[in-house]
Design a protein that fits this description.
The chain is an alpha+beta fold. It has three domains: 5-242 and 258-531, Kinesin, CATH 3.40.850.10; 543-682, Sandwich (Tumour Suppressor Smad4); 692-789, no CATH class. The chain is built from 23 helices and 35 strands. Residues 506-537 form a coiled coil.
Length: 815
């Protein structure tokens, strides 16, 4: 790295590729840990001078987001990278090494306190929301019963505000501690949901929303509302995949879970082309994720993207420590227009329409815009084209608004912004392809242009607009105004299709009516009223009570591949015997777990004496139960830091406070990778990686072993009679002259004894479809799939490589 230039070298042939960005941050080495745990530059290290700590990253990014919030601009912060790559380090951080978001939240409340102390009469409101997108379904993470909502929250569209999740819970907060508590609550609900195995963190997207509202009197003495929405988007893990690994597999794109990231990539590519002047359609409507992120990607938002790639062979090291330090941080600002700033109140502009000098004023505005750059008008045209391309329904939506309001939307002043991106890449040569892909992604995305506007209006005007919209909606629903169904395309539709479309539109209009009524009621409430209602509905917070119990009472906490989800499920053991199962036992089950291989009476934890000794035993024969990587067939003693696996997906660590406190030496930290590796080691795999190839092979084994057990358990529960086994295949056995040994999966039909060999990629693609089937099975829905979509089905006539033999040509020369 040299200034703004980043150079990546191919380890195979030494070819160099150069990428230019606005900033390059070095965080790989050159740091030291302070007494309080904060990582700072180590001036004695050769790279100490260029080490970028958390404060530096926040100064360049977070302060801009904070400034935008105070000025009333929306902002969006993306985080993208492989699972376990360390993307959370720069965005959220750990402990005293706070990332951009915690520092932003602390400073916004600090600013509020300072303004209030100075006698500022402005009213300030901060509200928080948190949702998750998995398999094209939206779940409210602040609703403990959110995972029970069939089909998830509905996505609707408002012409002014864009797409939104209907019924999403928003919680008022008064401090950063409140936000941290809500994030913890949402993460806990996310973790609990993941115990049913389907909503795995690496394949789900999480969106945290913080809305900052300022209410004050403007220069004309009118009550005015200025608002800004700050979104933190944690995208699903971008996993390494060999593009040829699943070639020919009919289910390569079968899992809907892959749709969102693919659509996001398509939107970024289209937006980059559009920003360069090409007339292309941006497919925002192709997925739930891109619908909700439409404003962030191409609309009213100032956006930062964090793309992170790290060395797969070193992921375990990062996961087992608190140092999820992104190894390089690269900042690139997207191209920006020279647009006009928000310099007039919108009401003044509307009032000027009736003045005799209207043409002069309009000409002045046009001249100002032209001076700023013609791109402004071009962008408006592009936006119009985009809306037309996206969906014919956009025009229908416009029809329900008064012409004056439509004209206002089209001609309001815009503030054209520069948009930033962070990319984090690894110096490890085994990660060359991932790092190159990340840099290309960042280079492509920096071309995107967005348009942000100040969200400021007189409060009475906002309420009046909502009332006018509701009157228009009621008139349409009452039949007083014709409801346009498809903008002239209705002649091509059958009567049944027209009826369905009309019913759908009526449902949407009724939903808008309800949303508008709710929004008007919220506007009339004081922030104190909203806060009291939220506290009453939310109940008490037991976090402090739980922390006290942890000091003296034995408990188990969950282990997860995502460190942010580790430790959110806590179960205390303070009775003589506690049963663990899937909740289907006739008796009481103290710890209920979901997922493949969990039996009604799965296990029992017993406490002997006054909590001096604890034991673990199977609740019934032949259950999947492992203790420190070994199968449990009889009673075993539980000691502090022991690892327990229930079924095929539920890892827990045991905490024995009395043993822990009696030890004079600190206990090592337990993590998910440690639990996985000891199972692989006890299964006969050699995990002593001596070469780069061994390290990659070891990671594949550790990754695939639980996945294979998972698939086997699902197969048993669904009675599919298919068996999966790991096998290590040399390049010669695959018919290749060069390469490294690879982990593959042998698939056996237990009825016919037919066998197939699947690649890692083909197996993982199919496993995600298996998980979707199993989730539907658990929820009592129709889970059977047709033969062509069944992930357990394989063509008996399919060809696969059995083996290879070398034929030496020397004997032939003597004949």
């Amino acid at each position: 790295m040299n200034g703004p230039t980043t150079v990546i070298k191919n380890p195979e042939d030494g070819e160099e590729k150069k990428f230019s960005f606005d900033f390059s941050y070095w965080s790989h080495d050159g740091s030291k840990e302070g007494a309080d745990g904060y990582f700072m530059a180590d001036t004695s290290h050769p790279n100490g001078k260029k080490f970028a700590d958390q404060k530096k990253v926040y100064q360049d990014l977070g302060e801009g987001v904070l400034k935008n919030a105070w000025e009333g601009f929306n902002s969006t912060l993306f985080a993208y990278g492989q699972t376990g790559s360390g993307k959370s380090w720069s965005i959220v951080g750990y402990g005293v090494n706070k990332g951009v978001v915690p520092q932003f939240c602390e400073n916004i409340f600090k600013g509020i306190d300072e303004k209030r102390a100075s006698g500022d009469a402005t009213e300030y409101e901060v509200v928080f929301s948190m949702l998750e997108i998995y398999n094209e379904q939206v779940r409210d993470l602040l609703d403990p019963k959110g995972d029970k909502v069939r089909g998830g929250l509905r996505i609707r569209q408002h012409p002014k505000n864009g797409f939104y999740a209907e019924g999403l819970k928003v919680c008022p907060v008064v401090s950063y501690d409140d936000i941290a508590s809500k994030m913890d609550e949402g993460t806990t609900n996310r973790t609990v949901a993941s115990t049913n195995m389907n909503a795995t963190s690496s394949r789900a997207h999480t969106i945290v929303g913080i809305t900052f509202v300022q209410k004050f009197k403007n220069a004309a003495g009118e009550d005015t509302t200025k608002s800004a929405v700050i979104n933190l988007v944690d995208l699903a893990g971008s996993e390494r995949a060999d593009s040829t690994g699943a070639t020919g597999d009919r289910l390569k794109e079968g899992a809907a879970i892959n749709q969102s990231l693919s659509c996001l990539g398509n939107c970024i590519a289209a937006l980059a082309d559009k920003s360069s002047g090409k007339n292309v359609k941006v497919p925002f409507r192709d997925s739930v994720l891109t619908k909700l992120l439409k404003n962030a990607l191409g609309g009213n938002s100032k956006t930062i993207m964090v793309s992170i790639a790290t060395a797969r062979s070193y992921a375990n090291l990062f996961a087992s420590s608190s140092q999820f330090v992104a190894q390089f941080l690269i900042i690139s600002k997207f191209q920006n227009y020279n647009g006009s700033a928000y310099h007039k109140r919108r009401e003044e502009k509307e009032d000027d329409k009736d003045d005799d000098d209207e043409s002069n004023n309009n000409n002045d505005d046009v001249d100002d815009d032209d001076d700023d750059g013609d791109d402004d008008d071009d962008d408006d045209d592009d936006d119009d084209d985009d809306d037309d391309d996206d969906d014919d329904d956009d025009d229908d939506d416009d029809d329900i608004y008064e012409p004056a309001l439509i004209e206002y939307f089209e001609h309001s002043h815009h503030y054209m912004v520069s948009v930033g991106q962070i990319a984090a890449v690894s110096p490890a040569d085994i990660n060359y392809e991932e790092s190159l892909s990340t840099l290309r992604y960042a280079d492509r995305a920096k071309q995107i242009k967005t348009t942000a506007t100040v969200n400021e209006d007189p409060t009475e005007k906002l309420i009046r607009e909502l009332q006018e919209e509701n009157e228009k909606l009621k008139a349409m629903l009452g039949g007083n105004i014709k409801m346009e169904v498809m903008q002239g395309d209705d002649e091509e539709l059958s009567d049944e299709e027209l009826a369905q479309l009309k019913a759908q539109m009526e449902e949407d209009y009724n939903a808008r009516l309800a949303d508008n009524e709710k929004e008007m009621e919220e506007m009339k409430k004081t922030f104190e009223q909203k806060l009291l209602e939220a506290q009453t509905a939310g109940g008490g917070n037991r976090s402090s009570e739980i922390e006290q119990m942890k000091k003296t009472t034995a408990y188990m906490y969950n282990l997860n591949a995502d460190p942010f989800l580790t430790g959110h499920i806590i179960n205390f053991f303070d009775t003589p015997a506690e049963k663990i199962g899937n909740g289907k036992d006739e008796g009481e089950t103290e710890l209920v777990l979901y997922g493949p291989g969990i039996s009604p009476k799965h296990a029992i934890v017993r406490m002997e004496g006054d909590g001096e000794k604890f034991t673990l035993e199977p609740g019934e024969p032949n259950v999947r139960l492992m203790h420190n990587g070994k199968a449990v067939v009889d009673k075993v003693e539980l000691n502090h830091n022991d690892r327990v696996l229930f079924g095929t997906t539920q890892f827990f660590a045991f905490v024995h406070p009395k043993q822990r406190d009696a030890s004079k030496t600190p206990w090592p930290e337990v993590n998910f990778e440690m639990a996985q590796e000891e199972i692989a080691a006890n299964s006969g795999f050699d995990l002593s990686a001596k070469t780069k190839e061994d390290a990659l092979l070891q990671e594949d084994v550790v990754e695939l072993m639980p996945a294979v057990e998972n698939a086997n358990s699902i197969s048993e529960d669904l009675d599919k009679k298919m068996k999966f086994d790991l096998m290590v295949v040399s390049p010669e056995a695959r018919g290749e002259l060069t390469g490294r040994a690879q982990v593959m999966i042998r698939v056996t039909n237990l009825e016919t004894k037919h066998e197939w060999v699947w690649s890692r990629e083909k197996f993982l693609n199919r496993k995600f479809v298996m998980q979707e089937m199993y989730q539907n099975y658990l929820e009592g829905e129709d889970w059977e799939l047709p033969k062509e979509k069944d992930p357990f089905d394989e063509d008996y006539n399919a060809e696969f490589h059995i083996g290879s033999v070398k034929v030496w040509l020397q004997p032939l020369a003597y004949r």
